[in-house]
Amino acid sequence: MIYLASDHAGYELKNQIGEFLKEMNLDFEDVGPHTYDAQDDYPDFIIPAAEKVAEKPLENKAIVLGGSGQGEALAANKVKGVRAALYYGGPKDIITLSRVHNNANVLSLGARFLTMDEIKEVIKLWLATDFTEEERHARRLEKILAYEMKK
Q1: Measured CA distances, 121 to 17, 38, 99 (Å)
Q2: Using only C-alpha atoms, what is the Rg of the chain?
Q3: Are strands 84-87 and 28-32 parallel, antiparallel or unpaired?
Q4: Secretion signal: which residues (predicted)?
């Protein structure tokens, strides 16, 4: 399952991403916001989406959006089991490596820096890329998980 969430800056693109996921016949749930509110607070939507990912962190994914995507990535990464990667433009290798090396299960996008065409390309790449399960990368993720479990 893919979960979508944003703040006001990403609201319109979030809705467009939902349409795009429908076209791709992918299961998704829009966690919100469901109406535009210029005063909304991104943690109110991002954290619930991240919690849904954390229920099945190897199966579920989320795509979250904000003006820069930075606050959204920070909020999502506070949830145990979530590995959010930030993208707001630049080399697409960042997207590939977020999956191959880090097994990122949340993609945080900077809505003010990306066009919908770029977002579609990035989402396709992110969803199509698998974690390598290479020993060194798995070992590093296990260390992060062990730290999370201490809290």
Answers
A1: 11, 28, 15
A2: 14
A3: unpaired
A4: none
3-state secondary structure 95-115: HHHHHHCCCCCEEEEECCCCC
For residue 69, list its beta bridge partners.
Answer: none
Where does 52-134 show beta strands of DSSP type E?
A: 61-66, 84-87, 106-110
CB distance 82 to 53 below 8 Å: yes
Range of the domain at 145: 2-150
Active site residues: 72, 101
Residues belonging to the binding site for D-ribulose 5-phosphate are 7-8, 67-71, 102, 112, 136, 140
Global pTM value: 0.96
Distances (CA, A) of 85 to 33, 40, 41, 132, 137: 21, 22, 20, 16, 15
The CATH number covering residue 55 comes to 3.40.1400.10
Q: What is the per-residue pLDDT across 128-148, written as a single tens digit (0 to 9) for each?
A: 999 998 899 999 999 998 998
Q: Is pLDDT of 65 > 90? A: yes
What's the domain count of the chain? 1
